[in-house]
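Long-time lurker, first post. I've been practising inverse folding by hand and with some scripts of my own, and I keep getting stuck on stretches where the structure tokens seem ambiguous. Below is the full token string for one chain I'm working on. Before anyone asks, I'm not after the true native sequence, just a reasonable design that respects the backbone. If someone could post their per-position residues I'd love to compare against what I wrote down in my notebook.
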């Protein structure tokens, strides 16, 4: 178990860099019920992440087998995804790659809970660090109950840094908003700089891999 936590902890540090979640939490913190709405949004996101983890754990073996034995259609899809990444990289060069969209209407705890789950489910296919964690848990020699407990611990630990938003609002009230906005600006500016380059590199890699299969008959 100690070896497992030693492996997944560095992955957690990468996974927790989620400026989109932080940004929407700040939106919730600026609503009429800042503590209730931001807490409900974080709870919805965390519950959805756990559900995604449970579901993905059943799909990992099938995904791994398909990756080990790819079919021609997979490289066609890879080509399309690669072009999509290049388009996204070029269209986000001016900034705003990580800019959140304010949910329609006035937030309440229920809609915030739903919105938190929604943004998690939308981003689930791109949660590569989380899939890596699930793979490590499945490869570990532990019981099913222990695996679920590790996944719960991971999700709770993931949520802790974001819990700073409702906690700051509780402690400082409206005085917390300038601090939260400054933190959000730092995260979003960093994401706006890094995101286009990451999308560009990913798109080029996918296109090169697909082209290698089409021209040479084998992927990279």
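-- Answer (accepted) --
I ran through it position by position. Result:
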């Amino acid at each position: 178990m100690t070896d497992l936590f030693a492996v997944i902890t560095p992955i957690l540090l990468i996974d927790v860099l989620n400026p989109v979640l932080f940004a929407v939490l700040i939106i919730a913190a600026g609503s009429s019920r800042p503590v209730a709405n931001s807490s409900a949004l974080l709870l919805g996101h965390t519950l959805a992440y756990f559900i995604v983890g449970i579901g993905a754990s059943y799909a990992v073996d099938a995904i791994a087998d398909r990756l080990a034995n790819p079919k021609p259609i997979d490289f066609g899809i890879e080509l399309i995804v690669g072009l999509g990444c290049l388009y996204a990289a070029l269209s986000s060069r001016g900034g705003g790659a990580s800019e959140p969209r304010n949910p329609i209407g006035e937030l309440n705890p229920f809609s915030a809970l739903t919105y938190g789950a929604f943004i998690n489910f939308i981003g689930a296919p791109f949660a590569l660090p989380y899939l890596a964690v699930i793979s490590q848990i499945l490869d570990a020699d532990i019981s099913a109950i222990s695996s679920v407990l590790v996944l719960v611990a991971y999700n709770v630990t993931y949520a802790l840094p974001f819990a700073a938003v409702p906690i700051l609002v509780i402690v400082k009230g409206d005085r917390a908003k300038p601090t939260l906005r400054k933190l959000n600006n730092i995260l979003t500016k960093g994401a706006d700089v890094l995101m286009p380059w990451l999308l560009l590199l990913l798109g080029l890699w996918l296109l090169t891999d697909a082209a290698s299969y089409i021209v040479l008959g084998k992927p990279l």
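A couple of notes from the structure itself: The chain has nine helices and no strands. The chain has one domain: 2-69+101-193. Happy to go over any region you disagree with.
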